[in-house]
Amino acid sequence: MAERKKKTEQAPPPRNFPDTRQIIAAIEAIARAEYGGIAPRLASLFRDVTDLYAGRWPSHEACEVTYHSIEHALDVALAVARMIAGWNSIESARPFLERHFHLGLAAALFHDAGYIKEKGDHEGLGGKFTLVHVARGMEIARNYLRRHEWSEEEAETVAACISVTDYSAVVDVDSLFNDPSLAILARMVATADLVAQMADSKYIQRMDDLFAEFKEVYEFEETEALLKKGARVYRTAQEIKDGTISFYEHFVVPTLHRLGRMDRYLTNFFADGRNPYQENITANLSSHLMDISSQWRRIGDILEELGLASPEQVRLALSRQEQLTALKRHGAQDALRLEEMLRTWFTGGSRKGTCLGDILMEMEAVSPQSLAKGLLAQMLPDSFYESLSARELHFLLRTAILLQNVCKGPWILGVVMEMTNEVLDCEASTILIADSGGKEMLVTLPTGTKKNQIYGRKIPVDKGLAGWVYRNGKPAMVGNAERDARFDRAVDREIGFVTRSILAVPFFMNGQCLGVLEALNKGNDRFTRHDMHVLSILSSMLANVMAGVFCAQSAR
To answer: Which overall architecture, per CATH, does domain 15-197 show?
Structure first.
């Protein structure tokens, strides 16, 4: 004990080392529920792996990479624990034993330890080990488990489970194990690794951290050598972000299927028909499709990808857009922000704005036909189009026709929202628009039986699910509002309404989140990812129409 204390004093954790207690407590709660308590070796495992990442092992430096961190290792371990519990809840005839539980957690906790440098290695942060981190993690796990009296068989089992997280080498998982249960466990570990990182609420933002690791390995391995080996080399973090949807569709989903869709046991764990991991992934992907950072920059990217405008033309147009926007925002006659412009428009007025598409056409960089093609690719991607039913396509067609007359007033949008209730089979819906200070949202176009009572109300952005969507710029889907901590019951109590289920998506215009589109109480209270896509498309359509209105006004 004295030796351990001395090591701790000599090697304190990094200044920004995260507090891991909450995640560990959640895993321990599952251990108690499934196996009646916390085994001593499990408690030691949590403590020792935390020490490894904090730099308190005499053999290793503190973990310096920020994507493959202790938080990620624990997130994967928690997902594994939940899958095991979900399995046990329906496979009572062949449940995972406590020993299996320990093995799965050990593999999860050590699976990315290979990014940690050995003591005295001060070259880089650890990203240089990207191509070999799996093998290094296997060896670190083996050595630790052998030193702490885990059996040789257990040490090799954990190492084999970690090997399955090397997605560049497709292996026959069953051939690695004599026990079928261990093969399932290995699939769960690899599944948890993919699901946990993509469900991270900051997944898209953390691509910058991932690129930093890639950039380091490019420097150590040399880009040309990597290209000859067939490795993918990214030039920027944005390139990784832009490939998120493709990565999920063409790599993550097929890999999850190859692993046997172990993530379905997460739904069994939560027991209410929900899978928060999939919901978070949906939110991340939907948010990315709507392009949180700048909707009009996305159309620029699409025009480039389609070969309709050069990077230089888009860059110059964006520069001009920023200059014009700055002049308008700071001018004496046009000092209102977009939020105020939109609120004013809803009550009968309108303000000026600047559109990248118009600038590109003025520069003769693109033709109207080319811009239209880009807009279609932005607002209605092929993957969405193919999944839409005839009824939903009819809804979008009718909406597009009505929105041609949006200059006549916001009542047109009221009709569109009523149509939205029909296509989503929901009881009510509304558009909430934030004030210029981002402190309140105004209920502008409510529908449903209580629309008169709620119209014009101001909702604080720090309360309720709509406030959460606005603050985070991400969609949210809730099947049981009463059980969601983000839901605020105050409005329901005041107007005599009962909110059961909610679907809400952020409303972006020119890259700014201006408010929220919200649908309430689906017939079966089970809004789906597909519903979220439909509402997201509607949000994008409305944003583009509103931007068009402001662009037209600016030309007068």
So the answer is: Orthogonal Bundle (1.10)
